[in-house]
Amino acid sequence: MDDPRTEEQVREANASFVQHYNHERPNQALACGNQPPRMAFADLPSLPHVPDVVDPDAWLPHVDGQHFMRKIRQNGSIVLDDVSYYVKQALAGQYIDVSLDASQQELVIWHQHQPIKRLAIKGLHKTRMPFEEFVTLMAQQARSEQRRLERARWQAQMGPVWA
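RE: above sequence
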């Protein structure tokens, strides 16, 4: 087949490759013993189907109650997972304890063993979304993180601007 030009041709080419790779082509991995993967592991279970709908905030209950120590910056804010939250400028330079309250979708700010503030967790979606939309969102976030890392690397290589 020539280079595929339509989505259907891509699907056909991919299906043909997967068939060849898994059922015909000897695999030199030690576990396969120079057999095609589906011959070496004929009883592998099928992967589950992807869900129709995803909750992008499903991670939150898994971190409920976790605590993080942060030093308050000069402007009165802290950074948690690359996100800035304003606490109180009068506490600049001091350490605070941040806990997660999943049920309220909030951060609880503790100072000297007392809760002093509750802040909404930034970046939550608060709704379920179609799987395809979720994948698009994850790809956008990955590209954004990649750009941020490249910018940080470039800045580190350049050194201080006003030397």
